[in-house]
Design goal:
- The protein is mainly alpha-helical.
- The protein has one domain.
- The protein is built from two helices and no strands.
- The longest helix is centred in the middle third of the chain and has 47 residues.
- The chain starts with 8 loop residues before the first helix and ends with a helix.
- 0% of the residues are buried.
């Protein structure tokens, strides 16, 4: 698929300085960002799951306290 993207000339110059294939460079950069974004979501879920039992126990304590008050 072909798309057109407008990039600043300075950025194009930097890409050309390190790669002979702009298309591949940009495709690789986009893939890297997408993988990083997905990994960040997975890491966030893992952190939530790691403390889920503790948070659920605290919530149960609060609800019990409210029911007794």
């Amino acid at each position: 698929m072909t798309i057109q993207v407008n990039l600043p000339e300075e950025l194009i110059s930097k890409i050309d300085a390190i790669s002979s294939d702009r298309d591949q460079f940009i495709a690789d950069a986009v893939q890297q960002v997408l993988r990083k974004s997905k990994r960040s979501d997975e890491e966030e879920v893992a952190l939530i799951n790691a403390v889920a039992d503790e948070l659920n126990a605290e919530a149960a304590d609060v609800l019990e306290y409210q029911a007794l008050s």
